[in-house]
Structures are given as structure tokens and as C-alpha cells.
Amino acid sequence: MTMNEASTEAAVLVERRDRVMIIKLNRPEAMNAINGALSHGLLNAVRELDADDALTAGVLTGQGRGFCAGMDLKAFARGEDIGPMGTFIREGSSKPLIAAIEGFALAGGCELALTCDLLVASKGAKIGIREVKVGLFAAGGGVFRLGARVGLTKAMEMAITGDHITAEEAMTAGMLSEVTEPGAALDAAVAWAERIAENAPLAVAASKALVRAASQGIDEASLWKLQEQHTRTVFSSNDAKEGPAAFAEKRAPKWTGT
Prior knowledge:
It is globular, with a radius of gyration of 18 Å. By secondary structure, the chain is α/β, with parallel strands linked by helices. Helices cover about 45% and strands about 15% of the residues. The strands form two sheets. The chain has a seven-stranded mixed sheet, with helices on both faces. It has a three-stranded mixed sheet with strand order 6-8-9.
């Protein structure tokens, strides 16, 4: 296991564990608040994840006592370029990405978490979009993405009161895949990623894309067209031949993502 600290930006570190990439927001002194360096570093790391056929899934987490406290208002006032953060929030990653939340994921930090496909949080972690308390609103997708995670009523409560919920409440609402003991969220998220990485990368990416599209309310005709595109790619791949061969030979498949 090696740490690549030359991940273009010291504000974001990446670590590889077999077919899983761990992406760490690395501004613990600022509660991992989003500034220019973190914004660029995160997008670069996600693009590295998506471009590498040796990787199947990623985990996004924060160094220190919390996941992310949102926008660094001082950096914003200085005019630092945080455009890549918006690109990540809009586009996400093509490969599954799991958020490992310790302490808090608030405001823009919550929106980063909502961009991930699965969320894991430790007991007592605070999750919320608090922007209305400072005269703003969660313009990074949090307002409309929350509903798909926690339901309309709870999403409305969180959006217009600015109040956070705990990890336990988030789990009850269906937002999280797992609640862990404090300090154990990263290991749990990696375990989820490793389970995903046992499967064929192209098939995983296609499945993710279709679930995402359906959750966004795309009409059924468009969903069938999207499925046809993925069917052509996945069913003609080397992995589609490797899977049945490995099953017949009673061995673990060797996926190449091609």
C-alpha cells in the first residue's frame, strides 16, 4: 500500500488499495473546507480514478476530525478558483464512489457526500445543508438531491431550517448504507468498495449509470436507449468472456475492465 502525495495538490491525497482508490481531503486545520487547491485536487483525483482500468471503485473521506465543513469563505472572498468542485458535483464519477464521513459533512461538504453513490458515517456525525442560516442556499445540488436520499418531508425540513441530522437519523431515513463506531467509517467504506471491486468494472459502471439515470426521473424510453448503449459495451467486452469462463473453471475471475 503506497501513498501518492504528488496528487497535483497537497490539499488532496490519494491512496491505492488493490482495485480501490482512497481520496482524502487534506485540510484538517480548516475542517477540510473547500478552497481552490482542494477543488482542483479532488477533480483531478476523480478523473484519475475514472481513467485507470486497474481501479473499480473509490472512497472519499476527510483527514482530521471531520469530512468537510463546506466552502472556505475566506478563499471564496479572495477569488480562488473552485470551478472544478462544481464540475465534480454535477458530473460525479463514472465509477462507484463511497463517502466515509466522520464528525460532520455540512453545507458544501454534505453536497460532496451526496455526489457519492453510497454513504457511510460514524455514530453522531452531523450531516446537513446549513446555507439558509447565512443567507444562501445549497446551490451545489444539495437542495434537490436530498429528497432522493431522505424523502421529501425530511429534505424539506433540512433545506428550510438549516438544521443537521445525525448519522443515526440519516440511517433511519435511508441516506446511509452503514453507521459505524467513531473512527471506523473509512475502513467500513473501503470494505464496501472492495465488495464492489470483486465484480466486473464495466458491468459495475453500467449498473451505476442506469440506477443514477432512473433516480433522476429520466423517461423509460431514454432509459432503454441508455441500457442498449451499455449492453453493446459490456456484453462485447473481454470481461464478459472472462466471467463465464472463470465460473465454469471454478476460479476467481481476472477482470481487466476491457
